[in-house]
Amino acid sequence: MRAAFRHPLFRNPAVLAGGGILLLLVLMAILAPLLSHADPLAIAPRFRLKPPSPQFPMGSDKLGRDVLTRSFYGARVSLLVSICVATIAISTGLVIGLVAGYIRRLDGVIMRVMDGLMAIPGILLAIALVSLSGSSLYTVIIAIVVPEIPRVARLVRSVVLSIREEPYVEAAVGLGTSTYRILTQHILPNTIAPLIVQGTYICASAILTEAILSFLGAGLSSEIPTWGNIIADGRDVFQRAPWIILFPGAFLAATILAVNILGDGLRDTLDPRMKKRLGA
Length: 280
Description:
The protein is mainly alpha-helical. Helix content is about 70%, strand content about 0%. The protein has 12 helices and no strands. The protein has helices at about 15-30, 30-35, 65-100, 105-120, 120-135, 135-165, 165-175, 180-185, 190-215, 225-235, 245-270, 270-275. α1 crosses α3, α3 runs parallel beside α6 and α3 (about 65-100) crosses α9 (about 190-215). It starts with 12 loop residues before the first helix and ends with a helix.
């Protein structure tokens, strides 16, 4: 156990800072029922637009709902969406990138399809998919995943193109090793580090995109507590009750900042080329 903590990852300040903040946010989301006993969906008109106080540490919204409680539960939605999006995008993009990078006759067709998807702005594609499929957690996740897959596929393809000419890969081909074994045993391990880094950036992008979709009314139903929905609820009364936007916005900014800092730290530690440029 002590040897594990001597790993360079645990000596990188960015990894420690980003990971620490993110861990607190994850615990906040998991322990939301214990941190606040209020119902995030309960409407109480008599407590409408109450400023921050001991009863409402972050104030209440225009329906009398506790902003702090809704922010806690909003973290659950944002983190769930980000993890699902990153997992699906990396898994799908990994397979596409491996096939496109190693099988030359499929490379052109696959990458032209990926280029076509990348040509469409991600947020517009997500809005279009949600509008066509209806508003639900599943459709929001799929809508955010689709624009991310081409980016992962291009990253994996670039790694495969640089590795497939290596002597040990050519030796495996000469020995008659199957394509599946070459991809899984010789090429796949080299994609793990860049994919871990890319996964953190996908998480940050997914959190922000989900908030934008909710803010625009194209995401989850407005009664579901998400940071984007909370901010959208407060835009009409911002001058009277700025806390409805400021506090969920602070949670959103802190989460994205923590994920990006963690991603930068992982990149510096796991990418040998980056370590060389930094003189590590």
